[in-house]
Amino acid sequence: MSERLIMRLSTFARPALAFALALGFAVPARAEGVMLFAAASLRTALDAVAADWMAETGHQVTISYAGSNQLAQQILAGAPADIFISAAVTWMDAVEAEGLVVEGTRTDLLGNALVLVAHDRGATQVDIGPELDLASMLGEERLAMALVEAVPAGQYGKAALEHLGLWGLVEGSVAQADNVRAALALVSTGEAPYGIVYATDAAADDTVTILGTFPADSHPSIRYPAALLIEAADAADRAFFDALRSEAARTRFEAQGFRVLD
């Protein structure tokens, strides 16, 4: 195509676009994609937040859920994530230490609580403290937990049991799962009679019963730091990150039992 023809087409195209806009015709915007890495315990609430935002904007959000440790390790290895939400500050610290967090974007987004759940819908409520005879409750059965040395929910759970003097009594009965939702599934399906999960996970599964909540001072404060990563390359990434702190998102998070920390 000649340069003159290209210039002529360009000359005609600009007035045509202006004419369309003047008449109120919508000029379709290019949909942009957001890749979000998020702790598994966020699935129910975050799926709802993303669905609301996608319906409003027309952009696409893809969410990869796993244990925060796995996600952080994938990001450190070069996985293309735009936003990271961890269930523990330590794993966000590891990502930030490598210079992968956009400066000034890190924020503590949410808080949570730790609970003991049972598969038996008729199970009796218990007071969770040093006097809890968890070993007798388990008998020959298993206590489902996320990986106690790597996954935040498992780390919080182990810390709580150690604080209460119960860890040494049940350590040999713990069935460890890759993430907290997998631990919840063990209880939900009856493969384990009891488990330690977040309060929000228990709220998302009506097949389990919350027996009690661990004292807040028995484990480190449960916080979910969120940050925009340096892989973020378009306006949609920033827009969705901002939407995580909107009133609409607050409603979704609080409906699942999260505490919004802003």
From TrEMBL:
Residues noted as binding molybdate in the record, renumbered to the chain: 41, 68, 153, 180, 198
Molecular function terms, GO-annotated: metal ion binding; molybdate ion binding; tungstate binding
One Pfam family per UniProt: SBP_bac_11
Entry keyword annotation includes Transmembrane: no
Highest taxon of source: Bacteria
Sorted UniProt keywords: Metal-binding, Molybdenum, Signal
GO cellular component, one term: outer membrane-bounded periplasmic space
GO BP, sorted A to Z: molybdate ion transport
The keyword Signal belongs to this UniProt entry's keyword annotation: yes
Subunit structure of this chain's protein: The complex is composed of two ATP-binding proteins (ModC), two transmembrane proteins (ModB) and a solute-binding protein (ModA).
Protein family (similarity comment): Belongs to the bacterial solute-binding protein ModA family.
Name under which the protein is recorded: Molybdate ABC transporter substrate-binding protein
Organism: Roseicyclus marinus
Phylogenetic placement of the source organism: Bacteria, Pseudomonadati, Pseudomonadota, Alphaproteobacteria, Rhodobacterales
Underlying gene: modA
